[in-house]
Design brief:
CATH architecture of the largest domain: 3-Layer(aba) Sandwich
Number of domains: 3
CATH class of the largest domain: Alpha Beta
Strand order of the largest sheet: 1-6-5-4-2-3
CATH superfamily of the largest domain: AICAR transformylase, duplication domain
CATH topology of the largest domain: Cytidine Deaminase, domain 2
Oligomer: single chain
Amino acid sequence: MRFKYGCNPHQLFAEVVPLDGERLPIDVLNGRPGFINFLDAINAWQLVHEVRQALGLPAAASFKHVSPAGAAVAGELPKELVKSYEVEGRELSPAATAYVRARGADPKSSFGDFIALSDTVDVPTAKFIKTLVSDGIVAPAYEPEAMEILSQKKKGSFIVLKADAGFEPPKSEAREMWGMRLTQDRNNTPVTAQHLERVVCGSLDDGARRDLLLGLITLKYTQSNSVGFSVDGQMIGIGAGQQSRVDCTKLAGGKADVWHLNRHPKVLGLQFKDGVGRQDRINHRVRYIEGDLVRSELAAFKDALDQSYEPLTAEEKAEWLGTLDGVSLTSDAFIPFRDNIDHAVKHGVKYVGQPGGSARDDDVSAACREYGIAMVHTGLRLFHH
């Protein structure tokens, strides 16, 4: 199958061919995907499919540039999240709720995302997706009416892909680069509850086990180095592709803070003029939280509001962030220094899942005990490139 183009428009030739010479494990039902669309779809589908198998709940992911901006399983939405995610009065099925939660983790980054769902796409899910700026979706099946809704999105160019849920990939995989072929065993070890058995300190409850499994599987399909924060069955911060692990932790923590501050009464109380679009409202709220608006942003923000506003002060932010609790941190490789824990505790982290094996494991464990954080050593590294 020919793609629209490669990673960039000047890379005119790009295609995908089945290794068995017969059929692809992903069918194109609508639109014409590009190279990056397909990379996103492959990674995103594997993520939600594995989460579904591990947790037994509908799962969704929002991908951008081969890493998830968010991932989640179906679950109840508290009133403040219903308002923050702007789904008041909307019919939400379990599949739709999973994606609402995945998209809500980092809605600024999810702008123009590629969606993955572990379950059949139903009408409520399709109707929600119809309202968003998104490039495409991959799922195992679609209800006929849902398919009709999605095929009309973006003037008929919205990409709809169907994944073969029963496909078993080869045990090895390869890529060709610069005149060479690199081959390795595929990372086909499933992440399961057995990887949470070696508890180094503290104890895990059922919610922590769910969140740690979600985080570990998410990082398995995230560009390394990576650290993820999760709570209540959804990722709330992902730090991906950083050279320093503590930078991953800081990045993920910063995103988790913005997610939590989006529920602050001052943020939820912002009143926008009629006609201000959903994504514009989301971006304005995020920049209001971040607080470092440049002159043009400040003018646009004021113009979008239907009333005057008060800044969200540093003291108010600190007080609100102090209420974030029960967060799980996962790391795709061992945590090398205790500074990761020192930063993580600022963002409500109470549970840590990491492979272990650092020369400074004792220092990291001591930091966890100092802060009352439970930690498990999975023994499983999850680098992904």
